[in-house]
Design a protein that fits this description.
With 128 residues, the protein is α/β, with parallel strands linked by helices. Helix content is 47%, strand content 20%. It contains 5 helices and 5 strands, in the order ααββαβαβαβ. It is globular and about 50 Å long.
């Protein structure tokens, strides 16, 4: 048991805890929401896709990502993707005004901005 826990902790230190669980039980529920259930296999695959997409867009280890989202499964996916890619994640409350949210995104020096579709529209952060 101690060896298994040590292995999980080593994976978690690299942002790969979901991958560890997916390898052992890909069909095990990881997230249960009103929208449905997401398994560890699905969650791991989604986090991998997003991490690769961020890298393809030039986002590198240590860069910041801002996330504007309500409490949804996608929040966890972005969290896991940024952890495994070595990125800094700054969450932005979707109840804030455009000026408040813009200040946070600018202040965290986000290289990428992720938002859930369907949130109220507000101007994107001006290019640096």
């Amino acid at each position: 048991m101690d060896a298994e826990l040590d292995e999980l902790l080593a994976f978690a230190d690299r942002g790969m805890a979901a991958a560890w669980h997916a390898a052992r039980g890909p069909d095990t529920p990881a997230l249960i929401t009103t929208a449905g259930t997401i398994t560890y296999g699905e969650l791991n695959a989604r986090a991998n896709r997003l991490a690769r997409a961020l890298r393809r867009r030039g986002i590198r280890r240590g860069d910041a990502v801002a996330l504007l989202s309500s409490n949804r499964a996608e929040f966890v996916e972005v969290l896991l993707a940024t952890q495994r890619a070595g990125l800094r994640l700054t969450t932005v409350n979707w109840h804030l005004t455009a000026d408040e949210a813009g200040y946070i995104v600018d202040d965290c020096e986000a290289s990428a901005f992720v938002a859930r579709p369907g949130l109220p529209t507000w101007p994107p952060v001006p290019p640096a």
